Amino acid sequence: MLKSMDTEDSENSPENEPAPPPMEVLHHRLGFHENEELRQIRKETVAMMRIAPERLAKKALGGYLQYGEKIVEHQEDYIRAQIGLILATALVYQDAEKVEHYREALTDALEYAHNMGFDEEADIIRAELNQE
């Protein structure tokens, strides 16, 4: 079936784009934002984690976490940003296809969010864990 140009344009407009899955933006909502340098470190880390033995993969992740902590230290709400970093780390594991570590990081973030009373965020994390 052919679509008219008007329909196609309206379907591709930003207001009609599907929202990203909550887990993919929750770390932003919590105040953790990767800068360009950390995004590059993330790409390299994911690539290394996919091919390297476990101990080297953890070392690669250590660089990501170390740089991420520097970003967290400068956030107004340190606790929320720290949970955001844990979630961003979970996404690194997910991108590297390390499902067990992904779930462990989500569990850590869930516990932290729950203990701090961030119920809405905890519910999003819990829903993600229940999907897996």
SS element count, helices: 7
> In this structure, how is the largest beta sheet organized?
none
Count the strands?
A: 0
How far apart are the termini?
36 Å
Cα-based radius of gyration, to the nearest Å: 17 Å
Mean pLDDT: 87
Give the overall shape, derived from the CA principal axes: globular
Helical percent range? over 70%
What labels would you give this structure?
132 residues, mainly alpha, disordered N terminus
General description of the model:
By secondary structure, this protein is an all-alpha fold. The chain has one domain (21-131). Helices cover 75% and strands 0% of the residues. It has seven helices and no strands. The protein has helices at residues 5-11, 22-29, 36-51, 54-73, 78-95, 99-115, 119-131. α3 runs antiparallel to α4 (54-73) and α6 (99-115) packs antiparallel against α7 (119-131). The chain is globular.
Helix and strand topology:
Layout: H1 5-11, H2 22-29, H3 36-51, H4 54-73, H5 78-95, H6 99-115, H7 119-131
Helix pairs in contact: 2-5, 3-4, 4-5, 5-6, 6-7
Question: Can you give me a brief rundown of this structure?
Answer:
Helices cover 75% and strands 0% of the residues.
